Amino acid sequence: MPRASMSPGNSSHVLAFLLAGIPGMSRFHRWVFIPFGLMYLIAMLGNGIILLVVRAHHSLHEPMYYFLSMLATTDLGLTLSTLPTVLCVFWFRSREISFPVCLAQMFFIHAFSFMESSVLLAMAFDRYVAVCFPLRYSSILTGARIAKIGLGIVARCTLALLPLICLLTRLPFCRSHVLSHPYCLHQDMIQLACTDATLNSLYGLTLVSMVILDSLLIAFSYAMIIRAVLGITSREEQARALNTCVAHFCAVLIFYIPLAGLSIIHRYGRNAAPISHTLMANVYLFVPPVLNPILYSMKNKKKCQVKHKQDLRELKCSGKSTLQIMLTAEC
Questions:
Q1: 6 in a domain, yes or no?
Q2: Angle subtended at Cα 168 by Cα 164 and Cα 170, rounded to the nearest 5 degrees
Q3: Helix axes 29-56, 274-317, angle to 10 degrees
Q4: Residue 50 placed within a domain
């Protein structure tokens, strides 16, 4: 049972919480961890490989790949933030987590989630500049400016999340100490407070509003991109311009749709089945880090194939030998 300290006013302050697995499947938690473990493995390997490849190849030291590295770092951080408690709950069947550790995990989960929204916005700006101002792309997105954007994202997320921690430390938790997920989330924790948590809810809504603002700015950037693409006379050039945005657009949908579903369930689905809360949270936290590396690797593979076809046509036109063409076509 979670420990609690008693105050003179017959209230208690929780010293530990109990995490929860998937409702109704406690006997099968070790089996359930197998797909979770595979997702963790794919997420860590995929995002780790992206970081190593971008670092190793000088030809990838471009703005788009710098932002992709930021996204991979964020996904890796989000994955590692949930791994310890998910492993303990499903494999070792250890559910107790101390209040300070729970606060720390909550901070990192929400910080990396907030950071991912900011990185997706920065990537949308990158695509906007690439499509609408291609000749000025390298002069606008310089290395120094990208570094400032990265530092700004980290500062924004850190400063936005710190008040959330301070507000939570002031709340006494004297109700049930059982959380509804195998990790700590802000929405989950404030529901266990035995005093009015309106201020926490309002600040949480402020953070949600900032994420909504990010999504609106991303939508605006795509509106500008579509406007610029429609002004291109060549159908082939239109398709090429839109093709540069496909992977990012899919990443935006993968991130924001589960986030919207999780927010709606937490605020308006109190009568919904507990398993729906758990499944939506798992989709939101696990799916983007798993799918993003796959999306971008497929995109870059297709780009590589198209580039090789163009190189082959150029070599044939220049009268190169078959052996030279084959050597040039190798990856």
A1: no
A2: 125
A3: 30
A4: yes
* Dist. CA 75–CA 18, nearest whole Å: 26
Q: How many domains does the chain have?
A: 1
Give the residue ranges of DSSP H helices in 170-197. 186-190
Question: Does residue 3 belong to any structural domain of this protein?
Answer: no
At position 36, the amino acid (one-letter code) is F
> Taking the complete model, does pTM exceed 0.90, yes or no?
no
Which domain does 127 fall in, by range?
A: 11-329
Among 165, 166, 190, 174, smallest CA distance to 13 is for 174
- Cα separation values, 235 from 73, 83, 128, 226, 302, Å: 36, 46, 19, 13, 19
Question: For the segment 156-215, what is each residue's pLDDT rounded down to a tens digit?
Answer: 999 999 999 999 998 888 766 889 889 999 988 998 888 888 999 999 999 999 999 999
Q: What CATH number corresponds to the domain at position 142?
A: 1.20.1070.10
Question: Rounded to an integer, what distance in angstroms lies between the CA atom of residue 67 and that of residue 146?
Answer: 8
Tracing tokens 């109704």 back to the chain, one arrives at 24
